[in-house]
Design a protein that fits this description.
This protein is α/β, with parallel strands linked by helices. Helices cover 37% and strands 17% of the residues. Helix 1 links the parallel strand 1 and strand 2. It catalyses: UMP + ATP = UDP + ADP.
């Protein structure tokens, strides 16, 4: 089954912070459940779903290294944080009867599957949601880069980046009431104007693979299903 906009396989990227609710730290189970329900709405449309969840609600490498920790060690801790988030999301999705695999860039066989590209593709074909954990497996990268990398490998048609706001603005809409939202923007504009979407390596990788990035609000009125079907407000980077 295809959606009206024709998406049959997508990457959904959410930050770790999206899972913490208003707690300010860690995991808030009702919030995780709410996002899982959104994922179910697109899974029900027949869309094959890949996910990457950040780790910022638990640990960020840069924070650790600012406090004197060795950067690479801190980054590995950040990657491990994403595994915890992925397991929480798997649990919430499976409670909704959606078969889900957590696939880690760093092998940890007792916890989840290691990343094997062809195996992951097969899971998607069988309509299992694939949550790619542990980022790219390398320090000095982010989960935005991981989402772009896996989306390219899985041949996703787009990356849907769920945020707190309904797209990309020319300035911060939370502080500037005159901030203007872009409907469409190019990768090069994002890089040149240093628009806060994803880090530069993720944008460059998406550009090189002609992978559109759709920035939308996780609390969009029509939900994720609406956005995937081209409804509501969002910004598309192409
Ligand atoms: N990280 C990393 N390599 C990767 C992905 C993530 O080293 O390929 C580490 C990095 O320290 C990062 C942390 O994991 O700060 C959490 O990921 P991120 O900051 O992207 O999470 P988000 O901001 O999306 O919650």
């Amino acid at each position: 089954a295809a959606t009206t906009t024709g998406f049959t396989r997508i990457m959904l990227k959410i930050s770790g912070e999206a899972l913490m609710g208003d707690q300010g730290f860690g995991l808030n189970p009702p919030t995780v459940e709410r996002i899982a329900k959104q994922v179910k709405t697109i899974h029900d449309l027949g869309v094959e779903v890949c996910m990457v969840i950040g780790g910022g609600n638990i640990f960020r490498g840069l924070q650790g290294s600012a406090q004197g920790m060795e950067r690479t060690t801190a980054d590995y801790m950040g990657m491990l944080a994403t595994v915890m988030n992925a397991l929480a999301m798997q649990s919430a999705l499976e409670a909704l009867k959606i078969n889900t695999r957590v696939i880690s860039a760093i092998p940890m066989d007792q916890v989840c599957e290691p990343y094997i590209r062809r195996r992951a593709v097969r899971h998607l074909e069988k309509k299992r949601v694939c949550i790619f954990a542990a980022g790219t497996g390398n320090p000095f990268f982010t989960t935005d880069t991981a989402a772009t990398l896996r989306a390219s490998e899985m041949k996703c048609q787009a990356i849907f980046k769920g945020t707190q706001v309904d797209g990309i603005y020319d300035s911060d809409p939370k502080t500037n009431p005159d901030a203007k939202r872009y409907d469409r923007v190019t990768y090069d504009e994002v890089l040149a104007k240093n628009l806060k979407v994803m880090d530069a390596s993720a944008i460059a990788l998406a550009r090189d693979n002609a992978l559109p990035i759709i920035v939308f609000s996780l609390s969009a009125p029509g939900g994720l299903a609406g956005i995937v079907q081209g409804e509501g407000k969002y910004t598309m980077v192409t």
